[in-house]
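Appendix B. Raw example, untouched.
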Amino acid sequence: MARTTTGRRRDQVHHQPDIARAAHLIADPSRARMLKALSDGRALAAGVLAAEAGVSAATASAHLGKLVEARLVDMESVGRCRYYRLANPDVSLALEALAVIAPPLPVTSLRESSTAGALRRSRTCYDHLAGQLGVTLLESLLTGGLLAGHDGTHHPGRSVRDGASGYGHDVDYRLTDTGRETLARFGLDLDGLPARRPLIRYCVDWSEQRHHLAGAVGAALTARLFALGWLRYGSSPRVVHVTEDGADGLAGTFGLRLAD
């Protein structure tokens, strides 16, 4: 088994990535809508993805089969139902990066216009918060002294390694002692977070062109906000709404005040 794993790693090192194949899979509008629906890290049923893409169950099954074969998506059977989720966070990051250079879709209905606005206000970027809510949360953590290292801004002309979206590398954010104490009181077990994952990371938010919090802390904080009922998902995948209790709690705990 060890030889097989080593051989696979060598293949990955010495073979060029098949960008064209990945681009071809994402390029289909129905598959692109399915992948976007899965970009918050949740597992969704095939029927939900078919409805999101606006295709029949049979057509959705064919599309999902191609995505599973290409290892962009994983499938799990639960009874008679099949559930799908992104194979790893890199798929979501690739979609976020493409959103920077992609032309806008034509808005043909009030629902599409409302969804686009909602995604910009508050959405998930795999397992952490993005959009205006995500960048405002990071700003509040910095203002409150929970994080240090930068001011949350993105400077395209001065960035060395940061692109217009995706994980950033130019800045080293860090938790302060105040941050550790505050997050512990808030219910985060910082010592129990996955050791394999960086504690603090950030993404350049494609819609806001500022930083939002990622990494193990970003994921744990987002999960805690949902567990408290301060956040809930909207009718469209990835869209997040702040509840009335959430607005009060975010203001009282982190000094985050939402724009009217």
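End of appendix B.
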